[in-house]
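User: I'm preparing a small set of examples for a lab meeting where we compare how different chains pack in three dimensions. I only have the primary sequence for this one, and I'd like the structure in token form so I can line it up with the others. Please keep the answer compact; I'll paste it straight into my notes.
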Amino acid sequence: MNAISIKDLVKTYPHVEALKGVSLEIKSGEFFALLGPNGAGKTTMIHIMTGLCNKTSGQVSLFNKDVYKDYQEARSLIGLVPQDFNFDIFEKVYNILYYNAGYFWIPAKERPARIEKILKDLNLWEKRDSMAMQLSGGMKRKLMIARALIHNPKILILDEPTAGVDIETRKAMWEYLKKLNKEGTTILLTTHYLEEAEALCNRIAIINKGKIIKVETKENLLKEHGNKKLEEIFLQLTKNDN
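Assistant: Understood. Below is the structure token output for the 242-residue chain.
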């Protein structure tokens, strides 16, 4: 079954066609990378999937739920980790998760156990009573992931999740994400750290100028290009498309 199905997706802004008939299928349980230069259309696709942006035309569904016709059901399937920190920096870590659980109608009596498990899994339990502004950059990134997972979504969308994070924290986050994926969570990752995609993802799509120019398994993509590093392949494909 497809977790994400996108067909002929178009998004036009004044004077800019951000997405030019994009079609993409991501299977349930995949760890999938969406790679592209700045302005290629990655974040626009994510915003349409999560209801933060309206499409111009085309179809998007999540586990066969249309993101517009079945908005509430589709939105409950997704946990989104955006690029920018967008929580209340003056709020306590515990409360950020508690209130977010409420947005998804999780009963109050169920929230403490969920919050404790997620914060312990991400090594944030000792910071539960700290204000978000007191966390390090890496801890804030982990808090964003914790908030996205509080309602047990079937799909986790990560938009540059380790930007500005030190190597040790990044590797710890990689291990946690791999564990989540093995447990059945479908993960869609965008990142400018191409070694991250190479380490984590099973299949890779490359988007440039609003068009998908390549979709392939990681193994086949590397083999096709003489087992070069993914970074070299990415630069070659996007350069050839210009």
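A couple of notes for your slides: The longest helix spans residues 167-182. Residues 116 and 134 are 19 Å apart (CA to CA).

User: Perfect, thanks.
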